[in-house]
Design a protein that fits this description.
Shape: globular
Strand content: 25-35%
Oligomer: single chain
Amino acid sequence: MPFIRKIVVTGGPCAGKTTGLSWIQNTFSQRGWKVLFVPETATELITGGVAPWTTGTNLDYQIGQMRLQVTKEEIFRAAADTMPDDRILIVCDRGALDNKAYMNSEEFATVLDTLRLDEVELRDSYDAVFHLETAAKGAEEAYTFANNAARYETPAQARALDNRIISAWTGHPHLRVIGNDTNFEAKLQRLLSEISSALGEPETYEIERKFLIRYPDVEWLEAQANCHRVEIIQTYLQSEDGQDRRVRQRGENGTFLYYETIKRKLPDGQAIEISRRITDREYLNLLLSADTGKRQLRKTRFCMTYNKQSLKIDLYPFWKKQAMVQLHMRGADVPVDFPPQLRLIREVTGVKAYKNSSMAVVIPEE
C-alpha cells in the first residue's frame, strides 16, 4: 500500500492559491511524491451555473456542494489506494470545512444532519490545513478579480470571509496561517516549507516554544470565534533513544479520532514530528506498548488563531493556577504575539520539567 497524505490548501479570496498549487505540483513531484489535486468544488459549481443565488436557497446549494466535496475526496482516496507509487500527496483546493464559512450555524447543522456527517471527523480527516491569507489583508494592491471568474467579494468582504474560514478550521491539530508579511514569493516558499514539515521531509523542522500563563478565563476562550475546544488523552509508548513515541485520543462531544506521533529530537529545540491517523483498533493495540513508567496525560486544549499564529492553550486537571501555551514556529527569531487576555508567567521552552513526556512522570508546580 502506498504512503498517502491528504492536505488542504485554503485561504481568503485572492490569496495566491492557484499559483501555490502549481508550486506544490512542481516541488513535490521533484521530491518523489505523486501529487493529486482535488479541484475547488465551489468554482466548479458556480462557473457551471449552480450557485447560492441560482438555487432555491443557500441551504439547497450548500447541501449539494458538501455532498460533491465529500464524494470527490472519497474518489481520489480510493484511486490513490490503487496506484503503484510509494508516496502520494492528495491536495484539496479547499476542504469540507470551508463550506462552514458560507453558512450560519443552523444551516451548517442541517447540512451535517442531512448528509449524516460529523464535524470533527470532517475537519480532522485531513492531515494538515494551510490557510493563505487574502491579499485584502496587507497586500491590497494585489487584490484582483482577474484570476477567478467566481470571485465577487469586495476587499472588506474578503477580509471578513478570510476570518470566517480561519474560524471554521480552528481546532484542527495542524492548522497553519500564512500571511502577507513578506513578498508573494516568500509567502509561497513558506507554504512549501510548512507542507514539507507536515510531511516529515528530513530537511525541514519546526521549533516548539512553550510558555506558562496564568489560568485563563475559560468563558472568554469559549466565546471567541477563532478558538475551539478539544479533549485529549495522550499515552507515551516504549521508544528508542532520541525520540518520543505516543498515541493520542483527540476529539469532542463524543466523537474521537486517534493518532500515532513519532517526534525525533534535534539540537537547539528543533524537532521533526511525524503523525499519522490510526484506527481505534490500532490505538487499542498500541496501548499494549505503553510506557508503564509514565501516566496518561489528559488535557483540555483550546486551539486559537491569533495574528497568523496557531496557539495551543492546554489546561491540565492537576493545575488550578496556570496553563501552558505551545506554538510551532519556523525559526527562533520569529516574534511571538499573545492576546492580552493571556497573562504570561514565563517562557519554558527547553525546560525539561515542562515537557509533556516529563510531566507524565512528575507534575511541575509553580
